[in-house]
Model the fold of this input.
Amino acid sequence: MTQDAKLNAVMARDKDQDGQFVYGVKTTGIYCRPSCPARNPKAENIRFFDLPEIAEAAGFRACRRCRPDLVKIADPSLSLTRQICRIIERHVSEQSGERLSLGQIAEETGYSEDHLSRSFKKVLGISPMEYYDNRRTEVFKDNVKAGESVSAAAYGAGFGSTSRLYEKAHARLGMTPASYAKGGAGAEIAYAFADCFLGQMLVAGTRHGVCAVYFGDNKKDLIRELEQEFYRAEIAADVGLLADWSKAIVDFLQGASAALPEIPLDMYGTAFQRRVWQALLEIGPGRTKTYRQLAEDLGAPKSARAVGRACATNPVSLIVPCHRVIGTDGKLHGYRWGLERKEALRNWETAD
Done:
């Protein structure tokens, strides 16, 4: 189900979609079922979640009017996934300093570890332990913000030691735990602009590689978006670092080079996001895949919505070609930089 379809269901208060997803309202911190009779929020203030437990993990609380946390779910995989999420949330909230194992979850639910993993991955696209690690990282962040030391925050999040946290930091935090604790000190990002047929293109990167490729009409808006995305980093205009990378992208868009050269990337995301982004790189120019096909390729056929979210959060448009993903109806759906640009890219790639 696409983001647009879910938004339409919310605006229509479609009762048939209750139990399929919930939505949170950023301005109130409350999440609801699609049929909630409350006044419809603005689209830009809505955030969708597959399960109530995930909405609560993100800091939203259940609406007292429509009680989305009490919706019955007929799908056994969804029901089991909710149960696993509750176990993980309970363990994380206890902050015992001990790591939860899949065996413990299996013992509590009465299902085998293989069955748990298959069911959970079918719904959310990641394993129970990947979800658990993501939640522990969020707890670590909260502990640090509350003033705890890195070691105390890591232990409270169930990592056992800071070494275990550092092993996962590059993929989950985008910086070392110590750097995060200092507000992102040490993360330096440079940016540069270039004109192309898609409008203004912002390319940003660290000394390790490109971390953002944005398209828009206004430079100030793109800089503001970069600052919001990397709000703890030191951001400044480029003084030469990005020249070669920017030129390579522009040359490709202008037809001066037949293929986009290999550009080093400095991207951060969850385990599932990285799997989706890698799968996008395997879609050749001029070709397309649907969100559902990508989900099937990843072995998670019911995770088309999660695939859509991963595409929407892709920070390096064009290099990681999320514009090559379409809906099952063959139409273009959702693109961070506007459907007109997505269509322009598709037409450009398929032109003789």
Summary: The chain has four domains: 3-70, 88-141, 183-254, 271-350.
